[in-house]
Design goal:
With 72 residues, the protein is an all-alpha fold. The protein has a domain of 39 residues. The protein is 76% helix and 0% strand. The protein contains two helices and no strands. The longest helix has 28 residues. The protein is elongated and about 55 Å long.
């Protein structure tokens, strides 16, 4: 039988912190693109805003899938 590492709780907490930080950064970038604050050089604003909404939707989908994966 494999011995469970004693720092598994710390590793899980660190993974959670990194995951939450990634979600927050993705949402900040996505909403910045939709508001027109962040732009992509050589792309029209409409394309940047659509890409921003794609980022926001995928970040929220990732949150839902991540939570269901942990609970299921």
């Amino acid at each position: 039988m494999a011995k469970k590492s004693s720092n598994s709780g710390v590793r899980d907490l660190l993974n959670l912190v990194v995951w939450v930080a990634g979600v927050l950064v993705s949402l900040a970038v996505g909403f910045g693109m939709t508001d027109g604050i962040l732009s992509v050089r050589y792309l029209p604003l409409a394309v940047t805003q659509i890409a921003g909404w794609v980022v926001v939707i995928l970040a929220l989908l990732g949150v839902v899938l991540g939570i269901t994966d942990k609970l299921g």
